Amino acid sequence: GQQVMQIPQYQHVQEGEDFTTYCNSSTTLSNIQWYKQRPGGHPVFLIQLVKSGEVKKQKRLTFQFGEAKKNSSLHITATQTTDVGTYFCAGPRTNAGKSTFGDGTTLTVKP
Amino acid sequence: DTGVSQDPRHKITKRGQNVTFRCDPISEHNRLYWYRQTLGQGPEFLTYFQNEAQLEKSRLLSDRFSAERPKGSFSTLEIQRTEQGDSAMYLCASSLGASGVPSTDTQYFGPGTRLTVL
To answer: Most CB atoms within 10 A, among A67, A68, B21, B73?
Structure first.
């Protein structure tokens, strides 16, 4: 079945440093979603990528979808303490609603 | 608050007891999902409803788990004869999407029900 792998599992940065998390799939993905989960919170949808090579930006966050649609990345420029949390990627949902989440990258930011 | 709500937020039970959780999706959303999440893991798909029809159930779900969405609005997830391995956060999500189309609609998650089985 579909699997998505995320690296790294943890990332500790100093405030102001950049952060990148990577998501890799063994199969081609029709789309990929990114979510953020704050400590003690629930996943919150950030963005969906659909097109090969697509790049989308949300303020300091840059999302990329690989040309082969098998990998994706999330890059945060100049991290802030509000960026703390776990970032998940998720593969596309099937017609039957099933989707597969990666295990996430947990970001901590030292002020 | 017009988001997804779940009740209760926390449940502590003894092994062997039955528990039931409720999810109220965003009112116009026709799709509803249940996930389970343990520490350090991503959400793990359990089951999916489109309106009142349960279209998919994970093979990871044993016969002790059952979910319903009788009127296509709220949903319940019941776990019978709970085991310590059932301890987890149970998340509900909803979305609005067209029938029969590979899903690209946005899922909105509820706050979850944290289950602890002693």
So the answer is: B21
- Which of A29, A31, A6, A34 shows the shortest CA–CA distance to A103? A6
Looking only at Cα atoms, what is the longest distance across chain A? 44
- The C-alpha atoms of residue A64 and residue B115 are separated, in whole angstroms, by 36
Residue of A nearest to B31 (CA): A97
With cut-offs at 50, 70 and 90, classify the pLDDT of residue B91: very high
Selection from A102, A25, A104, A107 nearest residue A66 by Cα: A25
- Can you read off the two tokens belonging to residue B23? 């999810």
Q: Which residue of A has its CA nearest to B42?
A: A103
| Residue-wise pLDDT tens digits, B7-60 | 999 999 999 999 999 999 999 899 999 999 999 999 999 999 999 998 888 887
Residue ranges of chain B whose CB lies within 8 Å of a chain A CB: 31, 33, 40-45, 48-50, 55-56, 58, 91, 93, 100-104, 106-112
Instruction: For residue B97, name the pLDDT band (cuts at 50, 70, 90).
Output: confident
